[in-house]
Write a structure and sequence with these properties.
Length: 238
């Protein structure tokens, strides 16, 4: 990373360690060890659309409270998610997630009529409340989930990569047909460095670095609880 040794390198190393530790947690191990049937893939796909929607809500709150130059940085990040890259023929990520559902036999209507998980609703509310805290805590809470999904930073591959590998193993669906997972495997490598860009300018003191760690740790805690609810949902399906 070439980060100056003024506390930032230690901060980055700790954030990367926390992200990698997610995959050793019981909730992540349980989710990733679950065998995937087509029905399970369908329901997972639907709930992921709700997760992506919540990410957009949270980033909106973060953008609202952040300094002007950080608002611009967040908007650069969110353009991929909200609008896509039309010049490259890439759709927004909610449309992408719904489109990927077709591989599992889902229609757009299935996403509209299937409710959110009750446990998911609680986690989404917790993330939104976290996004309304001090802006450094809030941006860390959202950006840490991008880091956790970066195959550059995660030993053994990001969450999207591991889920796509599970779908390929259990359903025989190659990653190139999992268009949403495939996109996030690529894009979240780039997005993962957003927090360090912010930290270089604003986390110059110990109190700022601790604010970033608080936001990141609390978000990862919510993330573990959410993955447990997803594992419960899958276990209840044939």
């Amino acid at each position: 990373m070439g980060v100056e040794r003024n506390g930032l390198e230690g901060l980055w190393e700790e954030l990367v360690r926390l992200c990698n530790d997610q995959f050793s947690s019981p909730s992540f191990k349980r989710l990733l060890s679950t065998k995937i049937s087509n029905e399970r893939a369908q329901q997972y796909s639907i709930q992921m659309v709700y997760y992506v929607q919540n990410r957009r809500d949270c980033w909106g709150y973060v953008q609202g409270s952040a300094p002007l130059e950080i608002k611009k940085l967040i908007w650069e990040h969110e353009q991929d998610e909200l609008i896509g890259r039309k010049s490259e023929g890439k759709m927004d990520h909610i449309t992408l997630a719904v489109k990927e559902g077709e591989v599992f036999g889902l229609t757009a209507e299935a996403f509209e009529r299937t409710p959110r998980l009750e446990g998911g609703e609680v986690c989404f509310s917790a993330w939104i409340r976290l996004a309304q805290r001090s802006w450094l805590e809030a941006i860390a809470a959202s950006a840490i989930l991008e880091m956790r999904n970066s195959s550059e930073l995660i030993k053994g591959g990001s969450l999207s990569y591991r889920i796509s590998e599970t779908f390929q193993r259990d359903l025989g669906i190659p990653m190139k047909k999992q268009i949403n997972n495939a996109e996030h495997v690529v894009m979240d490598v780039e997005h993962a460095h957003l927090l360090m860009r912010v930290s270089r300018q604003y986390a110059t003191g110990e109190s700022q670095r601790q604010a970033i760690l608080r936001g990141a740790k609390e978000s990862l805690l919510i993330d573990r609880v959410y993955r447990d609810h997803l594992a419960d949902m899958l276990a209840a399906l044939p």
